[in-house]
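Hi D.,

Good news: the full-assembly prediction came through. Inputs first.
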Amino acid sequence: MREVAIIGIGQTKVDEHWQRSIRDLAGEAIANALLDSSRNSFDALFSGNMLSGLIDQQNNLGSVIADWVGFKGESIKVESACSSGASAFRAGIIAVASGEIDSAMVVGVEKMTDSAPADITSALATAADSDWELEQGVSFVGLNALIMRRYMHEYGWKHADFAPFSMNAHANAVHNPNARLPFAITQKQYLNASMIAAPINLMDASPVGDGAAAALIVPLDRVLNEGRAIQISGSGSATDTISVHSRKTPLFLQAAYLSVQQAYKQARIKPEDVDFFELHDAFSIMSALSLEACGFAEQGQGPRLALDNEITPKGGRIPICTRGGLKARGHPVGATGMYQIVESVQQLRGECGEAQVEGAKIGMAQNIGGSGASILTHILRKI
Amino acid sequence: MREVAIIGIGQTKVDEHWQRSIRDLAGEAIANALLDSSRNSFDALFSGNMLSGLIDQQNNLGSVIADWVGFKGESIKVESACSSGASAFRAGIIAVASGEIDSAMVVGVEKMTDSAPADITSALATAADSDWELEQGVSFVGLNALIMRRYMHEYGWKHADFAPFSMNAHANAVHNPNARLPFAITQKQYLNASMIAAPINLMDASPVGDGAAAALIVPLDRVLNEGRAIQISGSGSATDTISVHSRKTPLFLQAAYLSVQQAYKQARIKPEDVDFFELHDAFSIMSALSLEACGFAEQGQGPRLALDNEITPKGGRIPICTRGGLKARGHPVGATGMYQIVESVQQLRGECGEAQVEGAKIGMAQNIGGSGASILTHILRKI
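Then the structure:
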């Protein structure tokens, strides 16, 4: 396979876009990515989306978006719950790397805030096991609360120990004009936030939102002379049991481990080479588990990195959520994986202002679908 | 890209499988495909499905199916309405052809008959344009009825002229043990069937159903010595406007034309080289439009082929629906594209008994999503 690169990125603000349709959001991100790339066409379109069939009564979204942007070529939608964005990205990578096409536009898009919160909670629960988890009445946040409770019990952490994850994400979002919650929070605000499903409170949980993010993938050798091209140097994808109760332990993200090992091998790097890590902090416990599965902390020691100030963009050993993460940029589920890619490109281009990771050359993004059931890891490199 | 081939196929009967789950159906097809291939593993899993999120409350189906069959590697679901099966198949082809993986299991699966018919009608309508078609109250069969009415008006055909499409499909299904409606019908039965949305009656429309079909894709050069391998020699994918009213004419399947031209070019063949054609007869009018877009009949003249007995497996110029088609094998929507592939392999292997197309060497399958909005065409060749 040939090497590939990202030559253009685009996004919308993550927000409550009540006046806009899902195709309109996707179209804006695609148009922005084309403008950014100084190109005006692409060979195929890959969309990542989780919920349009269920809450927008719109399936066949690949055709819908293609139609909206005036494209008649191949256009498919990939769905893997909250990792739909990265799954679509990987499909685009393979299509260009294979030589079948010379450019792939990938867009992740989701529109959630028109629906009633109870409907969204039910819709998000379809990411878990319908027959063996949902049947018991557990919600998606409930599953994550069980994991967090067990983790605290097993390793002796208190709820307050997770505060730095949320505080770092919010502090970084202040510098991201596309973030949904661009304000800083204090430890007191974290501790006093409303409880959702103990021990997960409002400041442990990412907000839903509407948004779209896109990237244009092309062969690397065609853009070596364009200073803004960012190489995609590693891509890994793996799955785990859909039900949390089927795993040997609920406290280790096996699919994160498998996918990151593939990505490290492909990129020929080790964890210490990674300059920043856009991880999937849908809930603060997931930040800890992701850092551990990817080799940045021993099992059970993820919160230590956060408490030691090692996850911030300014001097941290492994900065995470540098544009706000899911917690503060927002989590429009099927779009999130592409926001992570777009934000990683911004870091590698040095466009992140006060949240810039100085001298960043290698960035990693990890997108999780379900309670760790499908996980994709991508490594991007400054040329 | 390297050449690829199908080395194993599997399927379940299309039926009302009330006692079985969607993962169970997918698992049976996958297990059968592995058995058929004399292999016991694969590198990645690609699933095609349209409705599991909407009617089974189960998204993230890639992980669900992977889990069920004990697989931890990459597993994604592709959705493009009724062409989801072929879209997943093409994703599998590209992944193997690229060299990224050495074997791809592709499964199309759908479970529809547990839901109330009105719910299924609403669910299927999500294949059309939610904002600009469904808002007007039209159903999916209603859209096809408008197309058929216009076609009859424009080209002077009577309803009875479409009877041979339905009669051929039913006659062939008698010889397919996996068909949902394995019985022959007479012209009188066709003409007297209950009206659904004029001029489409029950015998013009395909039945929904539950089912799964799978194929294992591997590099061609590894299986040249295995007599049962079937080469995938052409693959094309294209889109058209999602709304029928946005097209210059509703009577020409532009995406079928674009995708079949790609496939013909890749396979280096012409329409006259095709020995049989598994087309997407969701409604009888679609058989006519598909034959015309693919170069087997002039525009407006599709029914002539059927009336002249040119679509039957015994001596017809271009046999279609040789295992029953969507009309009589059944149309478990996201699975249909993979049933077409599996059945094409059976024809090329010479396993179709009384519905065998003698000496068949090149078969074509065409899968349509929405009212012609996304169309994929694949060409298979006996080695």
